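Reviewers of the previous submission asked for a worked example of the structure-prediction workflow described in the proposal, so we include one complete record here. The input consisted solely of the amino acid sequence. No template or homolog information was supplied to the procedure at any stage.
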Amino acid sequence: MKERLLGKTKFRVSEIGFGCWPIGGQSYGKVSDGDSLRALETAWESGVNFFDTADVYGEGHSEELLGQFLKDKRRDLAIIATKVGWDFTQGAHKKNFDPEYIRSACEKSLKRLRMESIDLYQLHNPSLELIQRKEIFGVLEGLKKQGKIRRIGISVHTEVEAFAALQDHRVEAIQLIFNFLDQRMKERVFPEAEKKDVGVIAREPLASGILSGRYVPDHIFPKDDHRSRWMPVKRQADWEKVQIFKQTLKGKRISLVKAALEYLLGFDAVSTIIPGAKTRTQVLENVSASLEAELDREDIDRLETIYNSHEIFHRGLNPR
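From that input alone, the workflow returned the following structure tokens.
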């Protein structure tokens, strides 16, 4: 597995990481803990060393599974990232970035992960107002000084949120949506992140599974799958985009998943990509994008040109 530098964190991370949202068991349909642990083991054996989770994933279950998995592993070889900001302790999930809540949530994450210090602690999609006020980074800075966390990161939704976060020197890594169907962050955010030496973590690299090509527009997702809430106009637009992606790759014997991940690895600003996985098979397909490249520079440039020039790629996107 190839590694890249995660910006000024100085962590060397596998360029394909492991997104732990699905193994939480509440947002991507049913998943067994046995399958999840086998998936984690397969990733580890394949050279994956970067694991990204959040306390809210499965209301702590994702962190607990990751902690269980890592208890017998060489801890110094793993880089563990988790997130804080979604309070699930009072029933319905709601955002909570109160300093006392963050400090309390950090202690609970440490316990679930069986760690003495979290490698990368990330704010989980705070509002623009909170980012601009900057006091919230002081809370994480305090945790860092106490040795509870090693590095400070943030996950954002919008370009303006990303720019606001990048203005604070304490931010060492930024997590954002980046996939073949949604490349809006590459034009302005990537250059700014590189300028500030902030590591970029690309989340939803397979567009929540859409880039697998398995989900037709009228596919019925179970109620416990967050994709069941997608609007029909988005699903139709995404389907059409995937067909263009497939047509562009016609003649190359490569899976859509591998091609989608290899394409993202063509961007130097990206430090690591965190596709989710629930099974050993999914992990093996994900990591293959780093082990043996099948797309060349010409393929990547052609795909980027199609994205930039085709009007459909600017439809069906969530407001940003």
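The chain has one domain: 3-212+256-292. We consider this example representative of the routine output the project will generate in years two and three.
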